[in-house]
Specification:
By secondary structure, the chain is an alpha/beta fold. It has one domain (40-350): D-Maltodextrin-Binding Protein, domain 2 (3-Layer(aba) Sandwich). The protein contains 13 helices and nine strands. Strands 1, 2, 3, 4, 5, 6, 7, 8 and 9 form a nine-stranded mixed sheet that branches. Pfam families: DctP. One of its GO terms (cellular component) is outer membrane-bounded periplasmic space. GO terms for molecular function: carbohydrate binding. This is DctP family TRAP transporter solute-binding subunit. InterPro entries: DctP_fam, TRAP_DctP, TRAP_DctP_sf.
């Protein structure tokens, strides 16, 4: 028969027992605090479609500045998803509406969910970037942000800049609208751009961005339109001989955040997030201005002929392009067409 030896409890003093229980209690408390903190830790997923390089990418620069400020001054974490890692702009804006991706930096996609934003694409509205900044950072920009918040659940924290769009072509120098007659221009598949080029006398041809270089190389189209930085960084100047700095459309970036997420932040964190977004938007504008100025010089150094129209010449372009676009927008916007008049009033005031 096997005999099992009975284990004896160690002889523990009352003082040791109290110490042991105190350590258990403290450890449990610390664990609970840790779990609670983890449960309340918040992360902002921030996405955009531009490259990550802050020295050349307006959205890339804005994203990094935002991340550094927010993480430096709050307990929030900001995870960046650049270069379309989470999808194109249309996909990103819908992710933000669903609070799947908390914050996105977008441009053209905003008008698809908040149609009133499309008034910013009325050609020749802004005579300079500084005028655009005054309008967007003033009462008009605040009112548009509030309107789009009601429409989408997205809070516009600040405005950045994609830049002025300019015409290029491989046939002749364009100084006046008549010079566009008979030329085919690649445009985005957006009705507003079709109306604009038609109004100027050109032939608009919707072509996907990925197919543009081949379309220019094979002569499917004679020209295209984009910001200078986009033209240079994608080598389009090597396929085109002429550029006209008409700045027909000023493209703004919208730095938007899910209001569902934003409303869940503390007042202190909300203040930091809003301030960081404004700084980020201004950083994006600065990088855009830099790449545009640098791009104009570089395309000329590499053989492109660049023409800068006079104020009277720009007025002639506006006279041809604006009526068709405004008529189209009034029909599309319905009750929201009032935003056309509000923008014109704000721009006139900012230009004084």
């Amino acid at each position: 028969m096997l005999f099992r030896r009975k284990l004896r409890k160690p002889n523990v003093s009352w003082e040791d027992s109290m110490k042991f229980n105190f350590v258990k209690l403290a450890a449990g408390t610390l664990l609970s605090i840790g779990l609670a903190s983890a449960a309340h830790a918040q992360t902002i997923r921030l996405a955009h479609v531009d490259p990550d390089d802050w020295t050349a990418s307006k959205k890339g620069a804005a994203a990094h500045v935002f991340k550094n400020i927010v993480e430096g001054e709050t307990d929030l974490t900001v995870d960046l998803f650049p270069a379309g890692a989470l999808g194109n702009e249309d996909e990103l804006v819908n992710q933000a509406i669903d609070n799947v991706t908390q914050m996105v930096l977008i441009s053209g996609a905003m008008s698809k969910v908040c149609p009133a934003a499309s008034v910013l694409d009325i050609p020749y509205t802004f005579s300079s970037a500084t005028i655009a900044w005054k309008v967007l950072d003033g009462e008009f920009g605040d009112a548009l942000a509030e309107h789009c918040l009601e429409q989408t659940g997205l809070r516009t924290l600040a405005y950045g800049e994609t830049g002025f769009r300019n015409f290029t072509n491989n046939t002749r120098e364009i100084r006046k609208p008549e010079d566009m007659q008979g030329l085919k221009f690649r445009v985005q598949p957006i009705p507003l751009y079709l109306e604009m080029v038609n109004g100027l006398g050109g032939e608009p041809t919707p072509i996907a961005w990925t197919e543009l270089p081949n379309a220019l190389s094979t002569g499917v189209v004679d020209g295209q339109e984009n910001p200078v930085g986009v033209i240079y960084n994608n080598g389009l100047h090597k396929l085109q001989k002429y550029m006209t700095l008409d700045g027909h459309v000023y493209a703004a970036d919208f730095l938007v955040i899910s209001d569902e997420f934003f409303s869940g932040l503390s007042a202190a964190d909300q203040a930091v997030v809003k301030r960081a977004a404004v700084v980020a938007g201004n950083m994006g504008r600065s990088i855009q201005q830099w790449t545009s100025a640098e791009g104009v010089n570089k395309v000329q150094e590499e053989g492109m002929q660049v023409y800068s129209p006079t104020a009277d010449e720009i007025a002639a372009f506006a006279e041809k392009a604006q009526p068709a676009v405004i008529d189209y927008l009034r029909g599309e916007l319905g009750a929201d067409a009032e935003w056309i008049d509000r923008l014109q009033t704000a721009t006139a005031s900012a230009s004084e």
